[in-house]
Amino acid sequence: VKGLPDIQARRLFCLEILLQNGAEPDFYAKQQMFMGHRHLATLIPEVNNAVTLDEASKTRDLKEMLKVIATGIHPDANAAFGGFAPIGWAAIQGDAAAMEALIKAGADVNQKLPGGTTPLQYAAIHKQQDVFALLVEAGADTSVKMPATDPAYPGKSISDLASDNPNAKEFADFARDLLGRQEQQRLAQNPQMATLRPVPVNRQPVRFKTPAA
Q: Which among 74, 87, 182, 208 would be 20 to 30 A from 62, CA to CA?
């Protein structure tokens, strides 16, 4: 194609022509549009929605994110391509009203955000009591642990995160009580879980008979 300076530009031009003529890109191509070639995203509604939400997410303004979601865009649209989902910001900022709205709109309470952290883990790290309770009530996984590669909290459990700051004893007590009550409810619904015991392992050394001469 004349007039285009390099191979990359020519490829993008050809891709744009293909998209305009109904070609269906694979996930990798969509992710590339989301990450670096956003001018092409307007040709694919799924990616365009993700880009629109991601632009709002980058402002860290939950009101702006909710405005975008109110237009019909799914609250996890940008997370599908590696963006930071609004539910993560609600957890970090402790915005209970926004959290309620996001959960109602269908946000995944167990969404793995960039770096592998979940909203509940962010709520525990930032000691956000109200959103922590909302997430647990909505079914957030309380058994998750921080990635082993996390520089600040490697392998930490939710309980560890909730109690890691001696100046946040009120939150630690709240979280411990909430998680304890949740465990009691779980056991009440599954009584057999309370009676399960690990099967003992016979650790006696194995003795071999010496064959007769």
A: 182
Cα–Cα nearest to 40, from 83, 84, 32, 82: 32
> pTM value?
0.76
Distance CA(55)–CA(127), nearest Å, equals: 27
φ, ψ for residue 157, nearest 5 deg: -85, 170
Tokens of 102: 């996001």
Q: Dump the DSSP string for 114-163.
A: TTS--HHHHHHHTT-HHHHHHHHHTT--TT-B--TT-SSSTT-BHHHHHT
Number of neighbouring beta carbons within 10 Å of residue 176: 13
Residue 151: exposed, middle, or buried by beta-carbon count in 10 A (0-12, 13-18, 19+)? exposed
Compute the mean pLDDT over every residue in the chain, rounded to the nearest whole number.
83
- Would you give the DSSP letter of residue 85? -
Q: What is the pLDDT of residue 18?
A: 60
